[in-house]
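Exercise 7. Predict the structure of ABC transporter ATP-binding protein from Rhodococcus pseudokoreensis.
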Amino acid sequence: MIGTVSDTKTIASARGLGKRFGDFAALDGIDFSLQEKKIYGLLGRNGAGKTTLMQIVTGQEFPTSGAVEVFGQAPHENARVLTDVCFVKESQKYPDDFKVRHVLASARHLLPHWNEELAQTLMEDFDLPSCRKVKKLSRGMTSALGVTVGLASRAPLTLFDEPYLGLDAVARHLFYDRLLADYAEHPRTVVLSTHLIDEVSDLIEHVILIDKGRIVLDEDADALRGGAVVVSGLASLVAAFTSNKTVLHRESLGSHERATVQTTLSDTERDRAVDEGLQFEPLSLQQLVVRSTTAAGTTTRKEDAR
Ligand SMILES: Nc1ncnc2c1ncn2[C@@H]1O[C@H](COP(=O)(O)OP(=O)(O)OP(=O)(O)O)[C@@H](O)[C@H]1O
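Solution. The predicted structure, encoded as tokens:
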């Protein structure tokens, strides 16, 4: 086992996980673990490696290096593992003549934690026609069907790969609300890959941020929010304040400067800095992710063939 014996809450873990397509490294030797009963935000720019990571965790792709374990075993073609996993992705293919009700019937058959009552409630919420062929659904309805399957699966490990594509704002918020409500009663591990960070920032308990195939942040969301500040003021004061700190971003505004700094400030430190003339602004999760990705962007991906 990759997880340690005392680490009983780890349900999935990867060590040195790499995936190459030719000499291009989509994943570049990453380590991470997923704990039970937690909602993860899997964040990163286009092409960062999020889908590749989820495909490997769900046994749909092989890594080219390193190893991954889910519920203590390798996931690939492992029925014992995969019955407890539900992966919702936009590119999900169904047989040509499949209707919505056939999708639900298959999910009911394949997923042992399936909850039919929740599935029916979501069908009504999203106004999904059970007798319509899946290939005749609109893009938003296709996403809503995926979301319905993912939530009603109540799988101990449920992964949503950008589940909102095509969903309008009302439907997206319905999804977030239903996810939170059902999660509160039936906690499980949820991985949500998304670009709409502000929308999900209250939902996410832990952030895994990937950039160019590497993990650049892997932290609890609350710790992240409290672990960075935006400080501004006279350039000389900002320079003194940031001298021994990690600066994620810096912008000059004439004689003034504004810097995003990775630091945890005590009340005393903050009060002293304010007395000296510095100002502080809160940082949203989205801003932090953008800053962290930009800061990490100075490194290059190994043998980047693009
Ligand atoms: N089968 C493949 N052959 C070649 N390159 C691939 C293949 N699959 C993925 N890639 C490349 O690997 C990188 C990571 O792709 P991936 O789909 O995992 O990114 P992502 O983070 O999910 O992106 P997005 O947010 O745009 O969906 C991309 O550069 C992509 O082009």
